[in-house]
Amino acid sequence: MINIDYRDKRPIYEQIYEKLSVLIVTGILKADEKMPSVRNLAIDLSINPNTIQRAYALLEQNGYIYTVKGRGNYVCEKSSYLADEKRETITEIRNYIEKARNLSIDKAEIENIVLEIYK
Amino acid sequence: MINIDYRDKRPIYEQIYEKLSVLIVTGILKADEKMPSVRNLAIDLSINPNTIQRAYALLEQNGYIYTVKGRGNYVCEKSSYLADEKRETITEIRNYIEKARNLSIDKAEIENIVLEIYK
Amino acid sequence: MINIDYRDKRPIYEQIYEKLSVLIVTGILKADEKMPSVRNLAIDLSINPNTIQRAYALLEQNGYIYTVKGRGNYVCEKSSYLADEKRETITEIRNYIEKARNLSIDKAEIENIVLEIYK
Amino acid sequence: MINIDYRDKRPIYEQIYEKLSVLIVTGILKADEKMPSVRNLAIDLSINPNTIQRAYALLEQNGYIYTVKGRGNYVCEKSSYLADEKRETITEIRNYIEKARNLSIDKAEIENIVLEIYK
DNA sequence: GTGGTCTAGACCACA
DNA sequence: GTGGTCTAGACCACA
User: Would the Cβ of A42 be found within 7 angstroms of any atom in strand E?
Assistant: First the structure.
């Protein structure tokens, strides 16, 4: 379910965080569903449990999962992370479109991308 | 001409790279113009010369400047970096707009951003 | 009678302890009244009996309940826990008000909170 | 400057976080002053650098310090953490005063504490 | 079994 | 020298 790219410059825990957050946002992992345990995921990915732990801590901190001591980690309701995720995405889009304008990329080119993706 | 933000999480060499590349793209530093010397810039910014060196190496690698041994660094023609820069910007825009769609952000919201920035 | 909030970061036994102690302090569970049995409460809350046991042990230790072997757990007289509970609460209030003063929060702001809660 | 209490139930990284944040809030460590390096503090306290690292990460996350790669950690301006710290302190005060009222502690007793501390 | 903390030690990027 | 990441391995609290 998760692939780690060792050529990727980002740290492993961040890659895992990103992959899992996508699985949650897209609804493949559903609210209140149990996440794989830290240990199991560590074994599956042949990665140290501490590293998984760190990814899970990040997910919890950003409202994607909640931890029940002695029981495990569970997926949060959409409401607890969706607003943040949207806000950050909008900010990135704004930054890159500004960059595009500075590079005198045509407005039409951007608009075409929007149309194509939202078709 | 360049401000370093020590609160910024990016490494210093990356900030310098980014700032200088903007000065070049916007034409404030013009083609074949001489760049400040590594040593002078290091003194001006109170920064380790190695760090400036690294930023310049990145600029050279990405086609923004060229080095003449014993003379210094000079700004390249736009043609040598603009295509790459545009391509990468377009890719990022595409990625983030796809992400926006997956988060069910309205198409209209993205279009408004485009209009606002290109007004 | 008791809701467990799995999003709460505190361990489950502590939540149960806290909820039950409130029921006792507020007089909803009265002196010498029988507490629900460990087993029943465990079933009601779909929780491991060890966890309930642990909450009860804490309640006993702090003078909220007493155990009669073979019979069950019973609520203590107010005298046996109230003094401790008050003392600890006063200490916490003192600590946090000192902290507030160090942060130069206005005396008036604290006084308003007191008035509002005691109205 | 910092004492660790091994009987304290809180994890070491949290104790260090708390002690350092107090030093910052009280102005003993001033804005833009350099923090002790992770390694040095680790040696001073005879504690693993990873643990110090974690305390520093928490301090950064909550706006007490900022990190410059390759240079070290520096104290932030008051504005970047004071609002949060105040808000949290007010919340705690509110919770404990409510608890006091439920224990039928006299309003006068609380008011006396306020007066005494703010005299 | 489940997550959380900590140590010892290595290696890397950055300045 | 400075912080950041990762591993291997231990031990603890909680359910």
Answer: no
Q: For A9-105, where are the alpha helices, taking DSSP H only?
A: 12-25, 38-45, 49-61, 82-102
Task: Check: CB of residue B11 under 8 Å from CB of residue D69.
Answer: yes
CA of D4 to C1' of E8 (A): 20
**C-alpha–C-alpha distance, residues B24 and B35, integer Å:** 10
CA of A12 vs C1' of F7, distance in Å?
Answer: 13
From the CB of residue D100, how many other CB atoms can be counted at a distance below 10 Å? Answer: 24
D95 touches strand F (CB under 7 A): no
How far is Cα C62 from Cα C12, in angstroms, rounded to an integer? 18
Closest residue, chain C, to D114 (C-alpha): C97
Chain D residue with minimum CA distance to B13 = D69
Query: In the structure, how far is the CA atom of residue A88 from the C1' atom of nucleotide F14, in angstroms?
Result: 36
CB distance B113–A103 less than 8 Å?
Answer: no
For A24, B18, D31, the CA distances from D90, given in Å and listed in that order, are 35, 42, 24
What is the value of pTM for the model shown?
A: 0.93
Distance from CA of A66 to the nearest CA of B (A): 21
pLDDT value of residue B54: 97
The average confidence (pLDDT) of chain C is 96
- Is the model's pLDDT at D52 over the cut of 90? yes
- pLDDT tens, residue by residue, A83-111: 999 999 999 999 999 999 999 999 999 99
- What does the pLDDT read at residue D1? 80
Name D108's Cβ contacts closer than 8 Å, sequence gap at least 6: none
Which residue pairs from C75-83 have beta carbons closer than 8 angstroms and sit at least 24 positions apart in sequence? C75/C24, C75/C29, C75/C30, C75/C31, C75/C32, C75/C33, C75/C35, C76/C24, C76/C31, C77/C31, C78/C31, C81/C21, C81/C24, C81/C25, C82/C25, C82/D103
- Nucleotides of strand F within 7 Å of the protein's CB atoms: 1-10, 13-15
Which residues of chain C from 12 to 71 reach within 8 Å of chain A, CB to CB?
A: 12
The pLDDT value recorded for residue C1 is 80
